[in-house]
Specification:
Distance between the termini: 215 Å
Largest sheet: 7 strands, antiparallel
Number of helices: 6
CATH architecture of the largest domain: Beta Barrel
Shape: elongated
Order of helices and strands: HEEEEEEEEEHHHHH
CATH class of the largest domain: Mainly Beta
Number of strands: 9
CATH superfamily of the largest domain: Rod shape-determining protein MreC, domain 1
Strand order of the largest sheet: 1-9-6-7-8-3-2
CATH topology of the largest domain: Thrombin, subunit H
Helix content: 55-70%
C-alpha cells in the first residue's frame, strides 16, 4: 500500500471515527432536547387550548350578561350637566335630540316619562339620587321634577358640580328595594310626626300645669309683688290662703285667750259673790231673831230676786 494511503487510513481511524462518534452523540443529545421541547410544547398547547376554550365560553357568557344588563337598564345618558333649583326640580343639558322623551304612549293614554338619576359618590361609585318626571322637554334641554315627596334638606345632598348619569329604566329588583326603603322612611316620618305632635301636646299640658301651679301657689302664699290698698278682692286672694288662715288662726287664738280671761274673771267674781253671800248668811244667822226678821225684810225690799229665790 502506498505510504499516503496508509497515513490517510490511520488518520481516518484515529481522528475521523472519534469525531464522527462525537458528532453523532451531539446529534442524539440535540434530538432528545428537541423531542422534550416538543412534548412540553404539545402539553402546553393542550393546556392553553383548554383554557382558551374556557375563556371563550366565559367571554360569550359575559357578553350575553352584558347585553341582558343593557336591556334591563335600557337607554342611558352619561356626563349630564345638571342644575338643582330651590323647588327641588332639576334642569339637565340633554333633550329630545338626545333621545329623551317627555311622554310614554300616545294620546290620552300617554304618561309622563320617568328617568332615574345617579350622581358620583365619595368613593367614585354612582349613587342613586331618585326617580324624576320629565316635566318640560326641549331639543337640548329638559326639566325634571322628583316623582316622590322629598324630605326637608334632601336636595342639599344633590351634587350639581359633577356630571350625572341618567337611565330610562332600572331592574325590577331595585324597585322592590327602593319601595321598601321608601315605605320604611314614610313609616318613620309618620312616627316622628306623631312623636313631635305628642311632644307639643305635652309642652302645652306642661305650660297649663305650670300656670295652674303658679296660680295655686299664689292662692296659698299670695301674689308676688306689692298689693295696692285699693285692691278690694277677698283677703285670701290678696295675701294668699295660707297667710289668711294664719291670720284667722291668730285672731281665733286671741279671741279664745280673751274669752278665757273673761271667763276666769267671771268665775272669780262669782266665787267672790258666793263667798260674800255665805258670809252674809253667817252674819244673819248670828243676829237675834227680831233683827234677823227686820234684816230679811229689808233685804227683800232692796233685792226682789231674793224674795223670789
Amino acid at each position: 500500500m502506498h505510504t499516503f494511503g496508509k497515513v490517510c487510513l490511520w488518520f481516518a481511524v484515529v481522528v475521523c471515527i472519534p469525531t464522527a462518534m462525537w458528532f453523532t452523540a451531539k446529534v442524539y443529545t440535540a434530538r432528545a432536547g428537541y423531542i422534550k421541547q416538543k412534548v412540553d410544547l404539545e402539553a402546553k398547547i393542550e393546556k392553553n387550548a383548554a383554557e382558551l376554550t374556557d375563556l371563550r365560553l366565559k367571554t360569550r357568557t359575559t357578553l350575553r350578561e352584558l347585553t341582558h344588563e343593557k336591556l334591563r337598564w335600557a337607554p342611558y345618558w352619561n356626563d349630564v350637566a345638571v342644575e338643582v333649583r330651590q323647588d327641588n326640580s332639576v334642569t339637565i343639558d340633554i333633550g329630545s335630540e338626545n333621545g329623551l322623551n317627555a311622554t310614554v304612549g300616545d294620546g290620552e293614554a300617554g304618561t309622563q316619562n320617568l328617568v332615574h338619576c345617579f350622581q358620583p359618590g365619595e368613593n367614585g361609585q354612582m349613587e342613586f339620587v331618585g326617580e324624576f318626571r320629565v316635566t318640560a322637554l326641549e331639543p337640548n334641554r329638559a326639566m325634571l321634577a322628583p316623582n316622590w315627596t322629598p324630605q326637608d334638606g334632601e336636595s342639599d345632598s344633590w351634587d350639581a358640580s359633577q356630571k350625572w348619569r341618567l337611565r330610562a329604566m332600572i331592574p325590577s329588583s331595585y324597585f322592590a328595594r327602593f319601595n321598601g326603603l321608601e315605605l320604611q322612611l314614610n313609616t318613620h316620618n309618620e312616627l316622628l310626626a306623631s312623636k313631635l305632635a305628642d311632644l307639643e301636646e305635652q309642652h302645652q299640658l306642661l305650660s297649663i300645669a305650670e300656670e295652674r301651679h303658679a296660680h295655686r301657689i299664689a292662692e296659698i302664699e299670695g301674689p308676688q309683688g306689692d298689693v295696692t290698698e285699693a285692691d278690694k278682692r277677698p283677703r285670701e286672694d290678696v295675701v294668699g290662703l295660707l297667710t289668711t288662715l294664719e291670720e284667722y288662726e291668730e285672731i281665733r287664738n286671741a279671741i279664745i285667750a280673751k274669752s278665757d280671761e273673761r271667763r276666769r274673771i267671771l268665775l272669780r267674781t262669782l266665787e267672790d259673790f258666793e263667798r260674800t253671800q255665805t258670809e252674809n248668811l253667817h252674819v244673819v244667822d248670828s243676829l237675834p231673831e227680831a233683827e234677823k226678821t227686820s234684816t230679811d225684810a229689808t233685804e227683800a225690799a232692796a233685792d226682789p230676786s231674793t224674795v223670789s229665790r
